[in-house]
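Re: the request from the purification team.
They wanted to know what the chain is likely to look like in 3D before they choose a buffer screen. I agreed to run a prediction and write the result into the notebook, where they can find it.
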Amino acid sequence: MKAFLILEDGTVFCGESIGSTREVISEIVFNTSMTGYLEVLTDPSYAGQAVCMTYPLIGNYGITPDMESSRSWVDGYIVRELSRIPSNFRCQGTIQDFLKEQDIPGIAGIDTRALTKLLRDKGTMNGMITTNENYNLEEILPRLKEYRTGDVVSKVTCDKASKLSGKGKKVALLDLGAKKNIAKSLNDRGCDVTIYPAHTTAAEILATNPDGIMLSNGPGDPKDCGPIIDEIKKLYDSEVPIFAICLGHQLMALATGCDTHKMKYGHRGGNHPVKDLETGRVYISSQNHGYVVDVDKLDPKVATPAFVNVNDGTNEGLKYTGKNIFTVQFHPEACPGPQDSGYLFDRFIEMMGGAQ
């Protein structure tokens, strides 16, 4: 069956339908990872977005036990070629069946390099994936320009608190769209991790007397999270050590008077170099964000830059002045290096007083 990707600038790509045949409007972004497509599909940070994979062959090792959440969150999936015969000793199914089971519409067989170059040139755009060959471009374009991702954090966060028991430090993890490996990375270090829904109040979290607080990754524009930002300011005002990743990093910045802005096309992939400004060492990181903290408007009395992106000089982390708080834009729980930046979890445990 034919499928079409229609962008808000009027560009149309024609390919083959994969997954669900339902029609979807979404923000179109690209990811430069060569592997890890299942982690991309199940990362809650992609809610409200359709992802174009720049690597040309996707699905060659099938579906493996590496899901970052209980389901897929992407709105749509765009690939050059979908592997029809997966081969891996851990394979539990095909990506084609997974997309159908998860009701994710997709398109294959288009020139993903041309699409990526277009998004890099013009910036991230909204688009539609449809199997309707009789589409009306004049009717569709206004709908594309009006689309907004909205409050996607409320969509992806957990419904109720849950726990990963441990004998070490007690950590409260605020689930803004958390990947499973964040809680696992803490639990593997002995931490007793309680995962809270995104709209949990600061008072409720602090009442449990945690040794530390983790703010997770998540989707959407950080400025759409007003009530959550208010609660994070209260967490900042406490003396509890805090470590934040991705969206959590941005929300902490907004809570303390800093600003954020949307990037032209964002950072999404497993090959982004970041420099630790304290040690001078460079790490290869996994990233997934379309917004960034404005360091030009950063008050050094509040925070100072801790990491920088080697490619474009954008901020990748902050250390908060006079506080046991540090935040990073990238994903230290992911494995691009493969585990080079995992030391940040150890730093967090040291901030909480060290392992018990």
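For the purification team: The chain has two domains: 2-146, 153-351.
Please add any questions underneath this entry.
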